[in-house]
Amino acid sequence: MNSVTLYDTTLRDGTQAEDISLSVHDKLRITEQLDDFGIHYIEGGWPGSNPRDIDFFREVQGLTLKRSRIVAFGSTRRGGITPGRDANLRAIIKSGVQVATLFGKSWDLHVKHALHVSQKENLAMIRESVAYLKKRLDEVIYDAEHFFDGYKANPEYALQTLEAAEAGGADLIVLCDTNGGTLPFEIGVVMDRVSERISTPLGIHAHNDAEMAVANSILAVRHGAVQVQGTINGYGERCGNANLCSLIPNLMLKLKISCVTKQNLTKLKDLSRYVAEIANLPHNKRYPYVGDSAFAHKGGIHVSAVRKVAETYEHVRPESVGNHQRVLVSDLAGKSNILYKAQKYGINVEGRSKEVGRIVRQLKQLENQGFQFEGAEGSFEVLMRKALGKGKRYFDLLGFRVINEKRGESPTDCEATIMMRGPDGRVVHEAAVGNGPVNALDQALRKALYAFYPELKEVRLSDYKVRVLTEKKGTSANVRVLTESCDGTDCWGTVGVSENVVEASWQALVDSLVYKLMKDKR
User: Fold this and answer.
1) pTM above 0.70, yes or no
2) Domains 295-333 and 335-388+459-522 share a fold
3) Which of 279, 362, 380, 506 to pair with 74, CA 20 to 30 A apart?
4) CATH placement of domain 395-452
5) Residue 302: left if φ>0, alpha if ψ -120 to 50, beta else—which one?
């Protein structure tokens, strides 16, 4: 086998994880990053289940995707009705996609106790639902839910469910280890048995309850699977799904199976951190391949050896997945990342190694304070342009004040005043009220800047997140504020860090507006 297709379900299965909730804007931003990376299929959600997923499928029509196909997810028809009367199937058609993934029951236990239908009716539900969508869409993928458990319990019936999907015209049949309890040595045996009965191409969807999802997916590929399903960082219900950030490099670098281009593989770490930031979760430094510690070496024999020949203690080149070698007692990495970003932003740094070195040192200081620039591309470009002397000073802050006033049981009143000097030397003094101190400050800042830069009226704050960085410090903890702003054409993220949430918000809000001015003047 030379290649497999990648099916990402971060936006659906991943959001079923504890502590993860993505807005429509979050899902759209992640969709663009997945497409840029080269994911073949992006499962956007279940259009018949909630308003947020309905909104996503409407909004995603406005994105210009280069590679990815958007997929709607849903179940087979309900028992006792025709597919045309099933609200879930009609919602999939209405979503506007051309690819759908249907799941159906493979385990007779579920047929009896979850669906409360006969085994014969379940087979009809699978066959008719697949056929109904196949007549109306380009592609239908069938997810055989709980297949491995179903096969162990009743192999003949489990295989009959696959034959029903094949008879309905499924383009791909995906075997799902939904409970995540199957061990690798079992995968190949079952895959081979299925291939004897089913001619439709097969895929794998593995959960990680036994810490085997990536291993099981690899074994499935070795036994003929042509598609792997998973999530970025392994996010998912319970213990998560197969982690695409581990699975993809294992397939490409170890098995020489093509998934994305080698160039796109170097974006893997950035993608992993980006999704973590948008999900408002800390990025696990010990993730294989993409974690900060994945290629970190500390002291003694390891450092001595790896400085001479990296292969002595590194199983792949860190740069192949967008990571870098770190020697913890003397971190040597950094400049290549700056040069890459400078090229991306169209900033000429040729012959300016001194300034680049200064940016690297500044970044390390900021990251030590808690700044993270994945998901905050706007702040990173503002920082780079200022450090290289290419950043214009758009205004001088003379001061601001934020007042919170609460009387009795009435709601808190918030007011912000700001004074600044514009590029023409004129001083403006503005005030605004808001539903919180950050909102009031945001409104006052914008009113003041509109006097000099009316184009900023195009900018709206579309997302605002706060993360506590030093949890044991209670209310004196450092916080990181991550914002997203849009102007009708582009969206960009900015970041601020401080012990004071208003100060951290100020940093992010100012960067968001300065970035807009820089962007328009490029």
Assistant:
1) yes
2) no
3) 279
4) 3.30.160.340
5) alpha
